[in-house]
Design a protein that fits this description.
Elements: E1 3-5, E2 12-14, E3 19-24, H1 28-31, H2 36-39, H3 51-64, E4 67-73, H4 84-87, E5 99-100, E6 103-104, E7 126-130, H5 141-147, E8 152-158, H6 160-173, E9 177-186, H7 190-205, E10 209-211, H8 213-220
Parallel strand pairs: 3-4, 3-8, 4-7, 8-9, 9-10
Antiparallel strand pairs: 1-2, 5-6
Helix pairs in contact: 3-8, 6-7
Length: about 220
Amino acid sequence: MLRRIEALPGDFAFDPARCALIIIDMQRDFLEPGGFGAALGNDVTQLHRAIGPCAALLAAARAAGLLVIHTREGHRPDLSDCPPAKLTRSPPGMRIGDAGPMGRILIRGEAGHDIIPELAPALGEVVLDKPGKGAFWATDLENILRNRGIEALLVAGVTTEVCVSTTVREANDRGFRCAVISDACASYFPEFHAAALAMIHAQGGIFGWVAPAAAAITALQETTP
């Protein structure tokens, strides 16, 4: 049965059997002190507002039987997949690969690279490691979605204007329809969050739809008459 989410610029219709929830980079390195987000000089508490809505959305998606995918941005321990321009963005001692309170910053396998406990993946859920901003670049995400017959995505996570927006734009170019869940996303800069959401649903939904978590959860909880 098709479900409908009240969204901008109009209702987002989806079949739960062909829809996936993608939670972008809700990692300790971005949300907790001592990680990559803090190393860039950001107030990591700005991202905490997305945790509650994201957890509620995740629970509803699981109950509805959606495919759930968690992404993690991070790099190989030898940094061979980290471009120099990205590596040198922070000052020495606070760069990707440097030692931090949660292990080496933004390195796969370190404690900081892991997803926060509130959103820990359940057994069998896809955990996708990515070296860049978008979840499609240098990953097998598209194959996972195509093989499961997925055509629509609910997108949450951080940060709205960077990894979330990049993933949505990549998905749009590949023919996937995306609904970004506004309060289940966050940015270190609230004004960037608002601008990024506006860009997504502008011009009749040029990149996708935008809806609050409550509307998405209501649609996910609908039952077949």
